[in-house]
Amino acid sequence: MIRTLIADDEPMVRAGVRAVLATDPGIEVVAEAGDGRDAVELTLRHRPDVAVLDIRMPGMDGIRAAGEIRRAAPGTGVVVLTTFGEDEYILRALGGGAAGFLIKSGEPEELIAGVRAVAEGAAYLSPRVAARVVAYLASTGAGDRAARRGTARERVGALTPRERDVLALIGTGLSNGRIARRLHVVEGTVKAHVSSILSRLGVENRAAAAVVAHEAGLVAAPPERP
To answer: Where would I find the HTH luxR-type domain in this sequence (predicted)?
Structure first.
């Protein structure tokens, strides 16, 4: 059973998330919070496997709460809920320890898939979140979309062919176990590949690696929906 905490300052959103998660008999909601500070306190009390956090909450937002949870309860994975137009927040959350990123208006199946992936130790970027992050990166900072794509492809080019295969599957949100089954290897081999990939790409976690996978074109993202 995957024990889950939900944190959002809007009761109707919490109710909606709870209703979606309730459709999966393998997921149990053990606590709910209306702000980030309460989310941290309830995480320490209940030790859920996954905390689902709204990115914007009063007092302590989801980004700060994610960082606090990862420091105080490293066994709890964090999924962040976002809306369109919050791309910069997602980039901050990438550095704060969140492993899953979902759009509130996305398909219910994505929420369940994200919670399950993070509970298994994987990263999960909703394809639409990944597409927006890549577009945001292309429109800010150094260079244009083509330059950033070229940089990502150059970084990916330093990987071995098998590492590129693993990175592409990381980009789809698969756990090490599922990647191992897909590639017909043992899970320990996948773990070794993941460690090498993170080191070679110079990123700290699987979510950041997933962004590189999307930006390099290893993962096909669906068109955005308004």
So the answer is: 152-217
